[in-house]
Amino acid sequence: GIYIPFLTAKLLSSPIPGLALKGIAIGNAYTDVAVEAPAFFEYMYTHALISIETHRAIQTNCGDQLVRACLQGNLSCSNDCARALVEGYLSSDSFAMDPYYIYGDVCQIPSSQASLLPSPKLRPMHRGVIGPCAAQYTASYLRQPEVQKVLHIPTQTQWTDCSAEVSFAYHSSPSALQKYPSILKSGMKVLIYAGDADTVVNFMGTQRWLTQEGLNLSVVSPWRGWFGPDKQLAGYTEGYTNLTFTTVKGAGHMVPAMRPLHALYMFECFVYGDAACAKFTYPVDGFEALTGAATTTDSSATSHGALWTVAGIAVGVAVVAGLAWGYRKMRGSKAEYAPLTA
């Protein structure tokens, strides 16, 4: 949300010979702190993470201006507003969920143990299989002396995904809005997309800075649903002057990790155009066989994999049913279930 607009504006003002930048795509773009901060609790309420009483308390005691002040640690934050916001954090158990993907699980593995456990082998799915412990495994990998040696960094460096020391070491720009006029005026293609399951940089805040509270862009293509190659509703899209805003249904902050098939389709349609990507061939997975989207078979391993997934489930059910019947016959029928003991 900050890096790409700043870099793009620099490339426009100081072109590099031989480099023709045609467009940019930014996902869950944290663009302006003041505009987006109030959308956090609005998102929390509309996604059943805080109660209506807490929502009303925030509306009564805060308003957008005080929410900004409190979240930024400003002295103008009132006690009543601060109490309402704290209640929102505590009652939602925010520390017990992944704020970047509210529908995902959280990792239960301590970082110190991540290197001792084998990474589970999961069958790839085009709906996305990303475990809740990916960050722990990544940190464990990047802290290995052998890896650090290859990367030419000092060994024994305790790598972390977010470092306060690094953050305090450079000047941070609170907004990138001032970079967009020159970008949009250049005529290049701009895609702003948002996974709708991210609380931190949510689509509500993005819509705020795109419209009246920020760039004040005019709608040229009204809000509508868009569909992936699997024929499923993938999200919604709206066209502004020289900019397209798109949501990805069910995705968190890292859209391609959560919805890889829909993300690939979205990117390719953005780059090549809707007419071209409609003719492309995309992978098929087991879910499409279950939904009826994949109604024919071919010689591809992917399609066979989808059918074998369904067949495997059926065989598994039959085996379990057979074992249960045999066990029941061996032990004799019971009038009621035996209680479970610890």
UniProtKB/TrEMBL annotation:
InterPro entries: AB_hydrolase_fold, Peptidase_S10, Ser_caboxypep_his_AS. The chain crosses the membrane at residues 306-327. The keyword Protein transport does not apply. Keywords: Hydrolase, Membrane, Protease, Transmembrane, Transmembrane helix. The keyword Membrane applies. GO terms for molecular function: serine-type carboxypeptidase activity. Pfam families: Peptidase_S10. One of its GO terms (biological process) is proteolysis. Belongs to the peptidase S10 family. PANTHER family: CARBOXYPEPTIDASE, SERINE PROTEASE FAMILY S10 SERINE CARBOXYPEPTIDASE. This is Serine protease family S10. It comes from Achlya hypogyna.
